[in-house]
Amino acid sequence: MTIPSLTLADIQAAAERLCGEIIDTPCMPSRTLSAMTGCEVFLKFENLQFTASFKERGALNKMAQLTPAERASGVLAVSAGNHAQGVAYHAQRMGIPATIVMPRFAPAVKVERTRGFGANVVLEGDTFDDARAYGMQLARDRGLTLVHPFDDLAVMAGQGTIGLEMLAQQPQIDTLLVAIGGGGLISGVATAARALRPDIEVIGVQTERFPAAWNAMHGEQHESAQATIADGIAVKVPGTLTLPLIRERVGDVLLVGEDDIEQAILLLLEIEKTVVEGAGGVGLAALMKHGARFKGKKVGLILSGGNIEPLVLAEIIERGMVKSGRLARLRLDVRDVPGALADVATLLGKLGANIDEVQHQRAFSSLSVERAQIEVVVQTRGVAHIETILAAMRTQGYHAERVG
User: Fold this and answer.
1) Catalytic residue (choose from 30, 53, 187, 304)
2) 366 and 310, same domain (yes or no)
3) 26 and 112, same domain (yes or no)
4) What is the pTM of this model?
5) Domain end marker among 287, 302, 319
6) Given 30, 44, 53, 55, which residue is catalytic?
């Protein structure tokens, strides 16, 4: 059986359908990231779409081609996140009834946001695979048109419009780093980019915890984990339609770890003042991790989505502050006398450390009874500042050490 393929004409037709219906997002150079990486970096801000994700493009292109009868019957999508919101939002705009099947573990904020677009949300199954099996059967039983998150030519063509826009906005780009989950985004982008510029290099990025496409490209069999911060690309099996296109049109697939992704999220927040989710940061994560490979290149990165839980983002920020030395835990051994804690606080203040948290231990300590242990979490200016603080405290007679 011949597997249908995707063409530049399909993507150009999708661009016409989407014109004026989705945001033509900016693709901007980043001077700071370029200086840090030794290459020219261009960022495509798909996190600025109304639902904060590129997924709107494929969903809308698929639904725009439905027959009147299919529109009247309605559509169904299985998703725990961005695809659900993209389908629900544009279905509401187009007057198409939408059913979204989500696993029971789906975050409440995403469930409510999807319901807010008027979709009928069905929570079913303890895993995404359970939800997908239920959704497929429900679509058959009710005669609903399935809007697949990636393994559909119309969806892939919609995502490919990003490639058209990037090369029109920044024609000097010679390398694209694109996230891979099921493969819909990279299939579309690679098809558009390679058709317009056969010499362009398209490289995929996956997490070490979900390396399905990397396995396929490298002949390996690394197993998938249970979860990743890049939940938008946590796909265990690439698509039947997408995998042949990845093999044919993608030069390589790189892997990044959880720490790499956290660093990328924090860099984009600090430098570009933009919020991305895990999947939206993997391109930059790969650029930072495999930097030597891209020296002197003109690299385009797609910030594919910005739907990250606020508490997760807060934790990433705090962990990043610890790694950079701007937040440190210090342990001090002091005499257990009145005013000792006040003396420590005064000294830290004079040294420019802002106290975030204090723990004063007597009972839970191995020190002798006339001594006390103080642990303080302080905000500092970085690693060198911490060393200055420790040296000054030791000069004042304190036994001081960094413990975190």
Assistant:
1) 304
2) no
3) no
4) 0.90
5) 319
6) 55
Judged by DSSP in three states, 77 sits in: strand
- Look at residue 373 and tell me if it is in a domain: yes
What's the sign of the alpha-carbon dihedral 337, 339, 341, 343?
negative
Residue 254 sits in the same domain as residue 176: yes
**What six digits make up the tokens of 69?**
């009868």
Spatial neighbors of 401 by CB under 8 A, at least 6 apart, are 330, 331, 390
Q: Which tokens in the block code for residue 133? A: 């099996």
371 or 234, greater pLDDT: 234
Residue 192 sits in the same domain as residue 120 = no
- Residue 362: per-residue pLDDT: 64
Residue 70 vs residues 199, 220, 383, 395: alpha-carbon distances, Å = 41, 41, 61, 78
The pLDDT assigned to 131 comes to 86
Our answer to whether residue 53 is catalytic in this structure is no
* Average pLDDT value for the chain: 93
> What's the average model confidence in pLDDT over 37-58?
97
Host domain of residue 334: 324-402
The whole-angstrom separation of Cα 126 and Cα 377 is: 39
- Active-site residue flag, 304: yes
How confident is the model over 4-23, as a mean pLDDT?
Answer: 95
Of 143, 165, 180, the last residue of a domain is 143
Mean pLDDT of 345-366: 84
Q: In this structure, are strands 327-335 and 371-379 parallel, antiparallel, or unpaired?
A: antiparallel
Q: What is the pLDDT of residues 152-188, one digit of tens each?
A: 999 999 999 999 999 999 999 999 999 999 999 999 9
Contact between 275 and 308 under an 8 Å Cβ cutoff? The reply is: yes
Asked, for residue 62, whether it belongs to a domain, the answer is: no
